[in-house]
Design brief:
Elements lengths: L1 E10 L2 E11 L3 E6 L6 H9 L6 E6 L2 E2 L4 H6 L1 E4 L11 H11 L4 H14 L15 H12 L6 E4 L8 H16 L3 E6 L2 H4 L5 E6 L2 E7 H8 L2 E7 L5 H8 L4 E4 L2 E4 L5 H10 L4 E8 L2 H8 L10
Parallel strand pairs: 3-8, 3-9, 6-7, 7-8
Antiparallel strand pairs: 1-2, 1-4, 4-5, 9-10, 11-13, 11-14, 12-13
Helix pairs in contact: 3-4, 4-5
The protein binds adenosine-5'-triphosphate.
Family: Belongs to the ABC transporter superfamily.
Pfam family, one: ABC_tran
Keywords: ATP-binding, Nucleotide-binding, Transport
Length: 306
């Protein structure tokens, strides 16, 4: 289990994240969604033990990442957004070097390395130099090194970014496999639709603060909302409200009225026309995931419901 407890990170006067708290339970994939610069990598890097928080703590299966870093980080795998492996050494040799930190002998590390390279899709490129690996290959290599200690928790930071379809499918299936094995997985993305079919719940972060946590069920229920948006030439009056209310619940703002149900557009248009109203625009709207995302983080996109 990954238990993030009120972590804050300041860079001088710049607050990167503030009071970030949430949990990833065993057997659960949590989507961590926010715009660029929202604070996802900062949260993940602190949870991986590669960045110290200004305050707060993260418990990995009960081990504190600040006070018991070795045990905590042994229990969490981490695939960074942009793995930096610029070493002019063969990948397998570097793997063996890292395995040494876990107290694994050279012969055992070579054997384990070959197995893990195969598991992560790097079979056949073990002897290629790390600085000649592509970004996708570096991500797979980071995964292979993470797997040395067989952790029960994983941090995937924008892992699908820049991958080809095969790479995307590999990491998605891997996350699902880990889930079925009872592992806790945190999966960050700046695109809600990217994690939608994968995660159990989504934690939304904006400007360094957690703004909402929603289960996928709550999100799906939200998504099914459909409606009709009517833009009139003049402001909505009582008569328009009366007409539109016959078709469903309404929201009104200025010259815009939204009917929150799946109504027949022509019928509404006809009634308004018969009553002498001029409609400048009318159209069905559908609350989709990206609209929800923008609504949650407090920005309006053109389609957002009023
Ligand atoms: N080393 C640093 N020094 C100063 N500010 C930093 C540093 N690293 C991150 N920040 C700031 O912290 C905030 C959060 O950045 P972070 O990288 O965590 O966001 P993110 O959600 O991962 O973004 P992205 O999707 O672009 O990777 C940003 O305002 C960023 O500019």
């Amino acid at each position: 289990m990954i238990d993030i407890q009120s972590i804050t990170k300041n860079y001088g006067s710049n607050i990167a994240i503030k009071d970030v708290s949430f949990k990833v339970n065993n057997g659960e994939i949590v989507g961590f969604v926010g715009l660029n610069g929202a604070g996802k990598s900062t949260t993940i890097n602190i949870s991986a033990g590669v960045l110290n928080p200004t305050s707060g703590d993260v418990l990995i299966d009960g081990y504190s990442i600040t006070k018991d870093k070795k045990k905590a980080s042994m229990n969490v795998g981490w695939v960074p957004e942009l793995p930096i492996f610029e070493q002019d050494v063969k990948a397998l040799d570097y793997f063996v070097y890292i395995a040494g930190f876990y107290g694994i002998s050279k012969s055992e590390a070579i054997k384990r390395g070959k197995e893990l390279f195969e598991e992560v899709g790097l079979k056949g490129v073990e002897d290629r130099k790390l600085n000649q690996y592509s970004q996708g290959m570096k991500k797979r290599f980071a995964l292979a090194t993470s797997l040395i200690s067989e952790p029960k928790n994983f941090l995937f930071d924008e892992v699908l970014n820049g991958l080809d379809p095969e790479g995307i499918s590999f990491f998605r299936n891997l996350a699902l496999k880990f889930k079925s094995q009872g592992k806790a997985i945190l999966f960050s993305s700046h695109i809600l639709t990217e994690v939608e079919s994968l995660v159990d719940k989504v934690v939304f972060i904006n400007k360094g603060r957690i703004v909402k946590e929603m289960t996928m069920n709550e999100i799906r229920n939200y998504e099914i909302g459909t409606g009709l948006r009517i833009i009139l030439e003049k402001n909505v009056d009582e008569k328009v409200k009366e007409i539109c209310s016959k078709f469903g619940n309404i929201s009104v703002q200025g010259n815009i009225v939204i009917i929150h149900s799946d109504v027949d557009m022509l019928e509404v248009l006809q009634e308004l026309y018969n009553a002498g109203y001029k409609v400048s625009d009318i159209g069905k709207i559908h609350t989709n995931l990206e609209e929800l995302f923008f609504k949650i983080i407090g920005m309006n996109n053109q389609q957002a419901l009023i």
